[in-house]
Amino acid sequence: MIMMQNTKAFNIFAYIKSEYTMTFEYKTIEKPIENTLLKEKGSKFIGFAYPVNNEKELKAALEKIREEHPKATHHCYAFRMGLNGENYRANDDGEPSGSAGLPIYNQLLANEITNVLVIVVRYYGGTKLGVSGLVKTYKESAKITLEEASIITRELETEVEIQFNFNQQNIIFTLLSKFDAKVLNFDANENCILTASLKLAQKESISEKLSEMQYVSFEFND
Predict the structure, then answer these.
(1) 87-91 and 74-81 as β-strands: parallel, antiparallel, unpaired?
(2) What pTM was computed for the model?
């Protein structure tokens, strides 16, 4: 009975640890996917998917497609951004409400990805599809577009600026190596200033180590 209780406790701990780790990473697409084609009753649906990290990249991708397809009947899209997809939007661009942007958005949810924009361009072919037909076709266009993408896991990173004495170089660089940090900038003077990037999941641990060192100050930029 005691062994069973201990095993259960271990499993709960492992679950909590796994959940904690997952808060520092997210799934997204590796690179852009362009020009997937779907035809339905004379209409052409062309799909695009882009990894986007901010509003600037999002707007640039949307403008690019509008410039490339100025005569398209509709430029419908959906995106998710943020660690948990908390920044999102679904746009029908003139199609009946909920018939285009939402089916595209639901494919982002189905693939559990974020920091991704999916656009489906429609050239009207003369035959109306009806709301149910539009929902099905926009969903399928987004689906086949994302099926061509490589879905990867990215870990969140942070930057830290560390100030220390010149004779502490070896200690600092050894510590950074232990945490797989990448040095971005290093001013080697009597009072050294170093900027490095590292996984956000390591922030607390490296902070504890740096706090224990004399004549060392540091600040995170995140």
Answers:
(1) antiparallel
(2) 0.72
